[in-house]
Write a structure and sequence with these properties.
This protein has 162 residues and is an alpha+beta fold. It has one domain: Alpha-Beta Complex (Nucleoside Triphosphate Pyrophosphohydrolase), CATH 3.90.79. 22% of the residues lie in helices and 34% in strands. It has 3 helices and 7 strands; from the N terminus they run ββββαβαββα. Strands 1, 2, 3, 4, 5, 6 and 7 form a 7-stranded mixed beta sheet that branches. A hairpin with a 7-residue loop joins strand 2 and strand 3 (44-45). The radius of gyration is 16 Å and the shape is globular.
Length: 162
């Protein structure tokens, strides 16, 4: 029997500046792009997907951002040291004919303009939302993933200051 492995995956925490308005002191505040998969649990997440052969984490994350959200002009600001590794649920694994037991996701941080247009395909991704770090917990319900995204956000803030 083949040894079970974790699929290498990449994700991007994409930031945009909060646009100011009459009631918003927006200077230095950012929003994070969340995408929603059409499923009941853990639907909201960062853009992410499997790494293809020969791709770096950065290349895979930017390709997934383009495929899932139609964004091709993000500027990479750094790579987080955070890694999210998890096992696929047994119900999902029944349909996988391979020896992949879960995913190991690495993260990059990127920046885009406040006028960036997001386009989702309405199949793999059915909604998107820009949220502040304070609004994140309204959408990301799994505690482990929420804390991870908060950690990647902290890394992004450090990258922006450099």
């Amino acid at each position: 029997m083949s040894k079970e492995v974790y699929r290498s995956a990449a994700s991007v925490l994409l930031l945009r500046p909060v646009q100011g308005g009459p009631f918003v002191a927006a200077q230095g505040k950012y929003q994070i792009l969340l995408l929603r998969k059409p499923r009941k649990r853990d639907a909201w997440q960062l853009p992410q997907g499997g790494r293809e052969e020969g791709e770096t984490i950065e290349q895979a994350a930017l390709r997934e951002l383009n495929e899932e959200a139609g964004i091709s002009d993000a500027k990479v600001i750094g790579k987080s040291s955070a890694i999210y590794q998890y096992d696929f649920p047994a119900s999902y694994r029944r349909f996988r004919p391979d020896h992949v037991k879960g995913q190991k996701i690495e993260f990059i941080c990127a920046f885009t303009g406040s006028d960036t247009v997001v386009t989702v395909d309405q199949k793999e991704i059915n909604l998107f939302m820009w949220v502040t770090i304070d609004e994140l917990r309204k959408y990301v319900k799994r505690g482990e993933y929420l804390h991870l995204v908060q950690r990647v956000y902290e890394d992004a803030m450090r990258f922006l200051k450099q």
